[in-house]
Amino acid sequence: MKQAWLELPERSNLFWLNTINWISLRVGRWLSCLLLYPITAYFVVFSYRTRTASRDFLRRVLGRDCGWAEVFKHYHTFACTLLDRLYIFAGQDQRLDIRIQGLEVLDSYARSGRGCLLVGAHLGSFEIVRAVGLLRSEYRIKALVYGEATPCITGLYRKLNPSLFKDIIYMGGVGSLVGLDEHAHQGGIIALLGDRSVHAGKRVRCEFFGEPAWFPEAPALLSRILDMPLVLFFCLHRGDGRYDVWFEHLADPPRVSRHEREAAVHDTMQSYANRLEHYCRLAPYNWFNFYDFWQSDE
């Protein structure tokens, strides 16, 4: 079954992306921020499917029905994170105020030579975590991604800093995971997102905001296969270029018998779903899965 998020077309316009890029890096952030308001309004008005998904999620996380103002804020928060990624990829992260908590968790695994699996989500700006980690430290990070959902936007970032894309591995291709075992055994860090499933046969149902939703098995399975602990990372947008980054230990690799593996995978991903829900409640407008996340089995 083709997952709902894979069916969403990219609505970005290359001309306007390049225009915003030029204004942001040469004129100033203030003008780019002003332009985000009419751009956001356009997408809110003309994106019925994603607007409906936004309203559904906000109703769950806020506990009330939401109107146009809340949906606009949701879209605008997403637009702000895309703008701020420009500064990260252009090496101008000094324009942003990034506060990090729990970095000692990541440091302990990196220094031990054991490495870890970093599991994030489409919550806030996961790219900021990856880019800042690569630019400011000696962490050896490989990022696993499912594909190019927004090729125009990704292409723009790639032009700004090609070096930040050399350690991206696209899952699903032949031999896509070759070398991961060696990277893990050398104490490397592997980053992936845990809130979108691709293959119907490789996902698990977990409770999320009081209802069942699909999550991928990949984080739990890789933890077992590579014998690496799972560490959560979230980077929440707090407005006006301010971000709060959290790292926290999630789970050790499951060491169970074959007949217990399915339950162990479910327990690990349920723990992930619980923490994701916690951080979504901390920053309700930061979750950017603009599709029907609670879709049925069909």
Automatic annotation (TrEMBL):
GO cellular component: plasma membrane
Entry's localization field: Cell inner membrane
GO terms of molecular function: acyltransferase activity
GO biological process terms, semicolon-separated: glycolipid biosynthetic process
Residue intervals passing through the bilayer: 27-48
InterPro entries with a match to the protein in the record: Ac_Trasf (IPR014548), LipA_acyltrans (IPR004960)
Keywords: Acyltransferase, Cell inner membrane, Cell membrane, Membrane, Transferase, Transmembrane, Transmembrane helix
Main location: membrane
Claim: Protein transport is one of the keywords in the record: no
Name this polypeptide is given: Lipid A biosynthesis acyltransferase
Organism whose genome encodes this protein: Methylobacter tundripaludum (strain ATCC BAA-1195 / DSM 17260 / SV96)
